[in-house]
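Following up on my earlier message about flavin-adenine dinucleotide. Here are the inputs again, as you asked, copied directly from the submission form:
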Amino acid sequence: MSDLLVVGSGFFGLTIAERAAHAGKKVTVIERRSHIGGNAYSEIEPTTGIEVHQYGAHLFHTSNKTVWDYVNRFTTFTNYSHRVYSTHAGRVFALPVNLHTINQFFDAAYTPDEARSLIKEQAGEYDVDSARNFYEKGIALVGRPLFEAFFAHYTAKQWQTSPEKLSGDIVSRLPVRYNYDNRYFNDTYEGLPTDGYTAWIERMADHPNIEVRLDTDFFDLTQPWSKESAVGQVPVVYTGPVDRYFDYSEGELSWRTLDFEQEILPVRDFQGTPVMNYPDADVPYTRIHEFKHFHPERATAHASDQTVIMREFSRFADRDDEPYYPVNTADDRAALLSYRQRAANEPNVYFGGRLGTYKYLDMHMAIGSALSLWRNELADSI
Ligand code: FAD
Ligand code: NA
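Thanks, got it. Here's what our run produced:
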């Protein structure tokens, strides 16, 4: 008999399981997929030796010292720091939009103040407060030239919706930096797990008190850890979709998903950088990942004459698709409130993680909120 059932083996579920096992509790983790780790899972592509993040590129970064100390129990990190470029109208630009981008784009050598006043003037076409949609708001924030080049169509491709039909609410500020800093993240700590994501994840689950059952769905009545047999019998931490738990009684929450097209190419280096964005309307994908560049320190382990790339396409998710990003419409928010009330009344079931709370969570946020749930609620009650 277990002291705790964890549904889902992403970073939220694994953090709870690891803490409970460490405290001497017996934990069962069930996972619907045939591997642990949730969306952070990765594999070494066998012909090239290159680590491929199966569910999209995962970059670890945090400013939370507690989380950083915790994750360093299981893995060390490389000194990788994330940078992204953008191919627009046949030319390559630096991202996030910064003084280099502005000077490339306007073919100029503006100082920070000159660039600031140029963008301010271009942004005067619309007013942020009265902007009626994403298109007007974007122009009000960064001006028409930069908005149309780097944001309008990129965002439209992410949402499969034209910029005029997207709500202004999806953006509060479009980042423009008036210096040459092109580091993507501003966090104190950043890096990639030295031995890969899967080694990290496996170390978290590697404890005699943890039993992992793969290919096991909480809603499958024929397995011993189903919702029907577990709830009320054993404390449950549930990290699957909250609407699914309640059989969609308050409506289906909407998500965007991604499709990935992976290709092995017979070239040493395809694009010279890990991530290239494609913000133009006539290119169907949003970006291309080239995985060998995430680990330059592994160069001797990588095929020298081949590379792995992944094109990323974005669309709305059906019930059978992987849910990746909450759409968060007004209907979604109303349904979520009802689900939260039902969740609060569910005896000894704790809803957590990205799917269980209908919130996009980076890895460090999922780990941080699991550590809080453990410390504040579970440690003294199970
Ligand atoms: P998940 O990782 O989604 O894990 C939930 C698990 O529950 C899954 O394994 C699922 O199979 C399982 N499950 C669901 N239902 C059931 C059921 N009925 N029975 C059994 N098991 C079930 N984070 C970063 O920090 N940096 C990044 O660059 C980054 N990039 C991302 C890119 C994409 C495309 C996505 C989707 C996420 C990205 N993330 C990134 C976030 C990260 O992948 C995790 O989503 C985050 O760590 C939250 O983890 P989680 O445990 O809440 O959820
Ligand atoms: Na303005």
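One observation from looking it over: The domain at 4-44+194-251+326-378 is CATH 3.40.50.720 (Rossmann fold). Hope that helps, and feel free to reply on this thread.
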